[in-house]
TrEMBL record:
<comment type="pathway">
    <text>Quinol/quinone metabolism; menaquinone biosynthesis.</text>
</comment>
<comment type="function">
    <text>Catalyzes the thiamine diphosphate-dependent decarboxylation of 2-oxoglutarate and the subsequent addition of the resulting succinic semialdehyde-thiamine pyrophosphate anion to isochorismate to yield 2-succinyl-5-enolpyruvyl-6-hydroxy-3-cyclohexene-1-carboxylate (SEPHCHC).</text>
</comment>
<dbReference type="GO" id="GO:0000287">
    <property type="term" value="F:magnesium ion binding"/>
</dbReference>
<comment type="pathway">
    <text>Quinol/quinone metabolism; 1,4-dihydroxy-2-naphthoate biosynthesis; 1,4-dihydroxy-2-naphthoate from chorismate: step 2/7.</text>
</comment>
<feature type="domain" description="Thiamine pyrophosphate enzyme N-terminal TPP-binding">
    <location>
        <begin position="13"/>
        <end position="124"/>
    </location>
</feature>
<protein>
    <recommendedName>
        <fullName>2-succinyl-5-enolpyruvyl-6-hydroxy-3-cyclohexene-1-carboxylate synthase</fullName>
        <ecNumber>2.2.1.9</ecNumber>
    </recommendedName>
</protein>
<dbReference type="InterPro" id="IPR029035">
    <property type="entry name" value="DHS-like_NAD/FAD-binding_dom"/>
</dbReference>
<dbReference type="InterPro" id="IPR032264">
    <property type="entry name" value="MenD_middle"/>
</dbReference>
<dbReference type="InterPro" id="IPR012001">
    <property type="entry name" value="Thiamin_PyroP_enz_TPP-bd_dom"/>
</dbReference>
<keyword id="KW-0808">Transferase</keyword>
<feature type="domain" description="Menaquinone biosynthesis protein MenD middle">
    <location>
        <begin position="224"/>
        <end position="406"/>
    </location>
</feature>
<keyword id="KW-0464">Manganese</keyword>
<comment type="subunit">
    <text>Homodimer.</text>
</comment>
<dbReference type="InterPro" id="IPR011766">
    <property type="entry name" value="TPP_enzyme_TPP-bd"/>
</dbReference>
<dbReference type="GO" id="GO:0009234">
    <property type="term" value="P:menaquinone biosynthetic process"/>
</dbReference>
<keyword id="KW-0474">Menaquinone biosynthesis</keyword>
<dbReference type="GO" id="GO:0030976">
    <property type="term" value="F:thiamine pyrophosphate binding"/>
</dbReference>
Length: 583
């Protein structure tokens, strides 16, 4: 075979095996060296390609698709710094356990280290942030090498999704000429293999489960205790809420549910769910009153810093952390027993094998009473000018059934923690809480919108500014996205921290006001912009945006200092009523 046919069959077999392994979406950033891969993906009849020019935005866009669909997404770029721009999203993918197949085109080996343009060191570029790296062989057209390239494709998808999901990196050295020939016959099949079905054996991967003996040992450790807490941190298993709430109801235990746990919303029983714990665990006296005898945590660490204080103050308490496959997520350093088992199966096994177990009813009631007080204050009052907490409260009230909300880090996710109260409405809450950065928010949320369900992105002004390039995808693909832009003209979360006391340097180093009129940016990307001034007005504008197509940005403007005072006023009122009742 001559070069072009070899190149065509090699890349076509690779792409086809990715598709056979379950890849349905590829995000492509245009470039020259990646031409064979980009064109072949686009030519394949069973894959959807998304072309995102900015590589940093492209990687977060792919991350958003993967988070929403819970499936691996392929990502392609050319050689050089294009690949380096993927790095922030790959870090997030690693820590938030999201599967990506990262495919970087590269110069062939003879053009590396000799001063050739657009040639950087791409071998193991992402270090330990990928689950596996493989330097692909130069294209060959023999049956053995077509088998090889299919093998590597299928293996990459399996590795990305097995155990704790994450990114896998494949680096493709490619020689010129780079244009494939799609007029060749049977390019999606390995030459020399008749009646082809599959070259690489499909992998079947089961879930971890404790034995009956292990379940009984766990129950024995708990049954002598009376006061326990179940904690549900960020996770995305759709079946988890039913399983954990059934277990909590049987045992009579409170569930401290993070907004990213997918437990606060849905049709399941919510009687034991304590969603406002962040508001009252801020008080040290209340934390002492609620000292548990054991803590069982599912999912990642919750957003709440108040819960972190609660955990640190109870180092002597028996603690269990449940991980579906593997990993160590315990930043306090507390002595913790790790249980590696599928969370849903574990809940069902504990439920079926603990018929006699039960805990202190007054303990659960104490949590429920405090939660009721907190919710009363969080729902009370409507300000003349909308506050950041009210904005989140309004969004939760009107976001559509079966929609997704993609929440920024810093203040927005903390306001979601406080003001997202339990609801029978089912919707998903997503955030980039792996590395907790503000970068890539808009791209991630817009990527999530490709699944077709309504998506609302909750963004601060700094997160919006940091990823404005991401808006191009919404314009280009006419995606339906609503962005709630909470503009406090700077880094609002720093106003809650000790840095706010440094009046000399605070605004320049931490407050960082932008003084930008975002309306012009929204118009540039073909979106519809409007400013909301009250909670009622925001609700109506949000509802209207969900009934129309395209990109909608609804901005509210707040003052950072007023925001701190308003939040602290709410927390103080909650604490005072709870402590007064304990006198």
């Amino acid at each position: 075979m001559e070069h072009t046919e070899i190149l065509t069959r090699y890349t076509a077999n690779f792409v086809d095996e990715l598709v056979k392994s379950g890849i349905t979406d590829v995000v492509i950033s245009p470039g020259s060296r990646s031409t064979p891969l980009a064109l072949t993906f686009t030519e394949h009849p069973s894959i959807k390609e998304w072309v995102i020019i900015d590589e940093r935005s492209a990687a977060f866009f792919a991350l958003g698709i993967a988070k929403q669909t819970k499936q691996a997404v392929a990502l392609i770029c050319t050689s050089g710094t294009a690949a380096a721009n993927y790095f922030p999203a790959i870090v997030e993918s690693h820590y938030s356990r999201v599967p990506l197949i990262v495919i970087t085109a590269d110069r062939p080996h003879e053009l590396r280290g000799v001063g050739a343009p657009q040639a950087i060191e791409q071998v193991k570029l992402y270090g330990d942030y990928v689950k596996e790296f493989h330097e692909m062989a130069l294209p060959e057209g023999t049956p053995e090498m077509l088998n090889y390239v299919r093998n590597k494709a299928a293996h990459a998808v399996y590795i990305a999704q097995e155990g704790n999901p994450g990114p896998v990196h494949l680096n493709f050295p490619l020689r010129e000429p780079l244009n494939p020939d799609f007029s060749l016959e049977a390019i999606w099949e390995p030459t020399g293999y008749g009646n082809y079905e599959r070259i690489y054996q499909e992998s079947l991967d089961g879930r971890k489960r404790l034995t009956t003996t292990q379940i009984q040992l766990l129950i024995e450790k708990l049954q002598s205790k009376k006061k326990g807490v179940i904690v549900c941190g960020p996770q995305v298993d759709d079946d988890f809420a039913d399983a954990i709430t059934a277990l909590a109801a049987k045992w009579g235990l409170p569930i401290l549910a993070d907004p990213l746990s997918q437990v606060r919303s849905g049709k399941h029983d919510k009687n034991n769910i304590i969603e406002s714990y962040d508001a009252f665990l801020r008080n040290a006296t209340i934390r002492k009153q609620l000292k548990p005898e054991f803590i069982i945590r599912f999912g990642a660490m919750p957003v709440s810093k108040a819960y972190l204080f609660y955990l640190k103050e109870n180092k002597d308490v028996m603690q269990f952390t449940i991980e579906n496959s593997a990993g160590y997520r315990e930043p306090t350093g507390n002595i913790t027993e790790f249980i590696f088992a599928d969370a849903v199966s574990l809940c069902k096994d504990l439920l079926s094998q603990s018929p006699e177990i039960g805990f202190d009813e007054k303990w659960l009631q104490a949590w429920q009473d405090m939660n009721h007080i907190a919710k009363k204050h969080l729902l009370a009052d409507v300000e003349d000018k909308i506050t950041e907490g009210e904005a989140v409260r309004a969004l939760v009230d009107v976001t559509p059934e079966s929609s997704s909300v993609y929440v920024a880090n810093s203040m927005p996710i903390r306001d979601f923690d406080t003001f997202m109260l339990t609801t029978d409405k089912s919707f998903t809450v997503l955030a980039n809480r792996g590395a907790n950065g503000i970068d890539g928010l808009l791209s991630s949320g817009i990527g999530a919108a490709t699944a077709g369900n309504p998506v609302t992105i909750v963004s601060g002004d700094l997160s919006f500014f940091h990823d404005m390039n991401g808006l191009l995808a919404a314009k280009h693909y006419q995606l339906n996205v609503t962005i709630l832009l909470i503009n406090n003209n700077g880094g609002g979360i720093f106003s809650f921290l000790s840095q706010a006391n440094d009046k000399k340097h605070f605004e320049a180093l931490f407050g960082t006001p932008l003084n930008i009129d975002f309306k012009h940016a929204v118009n540039m990307y073909g979106g519809k912009y409007i400013l909301a001034k009250t909670e009622a007005e925001l609700k109506e504008l949000l509802k209207k945006s969900y009934q129309e197509n395209g990109l909608h940005v609804i901005e509210i403007q707040t003052d950072r200092t007023d925001n701190v005072d308003w939040h602290r006023g709410k927390w103080l009122a909650i604490e005072q009523e709870i402590l007064k009742g304990k006198e």
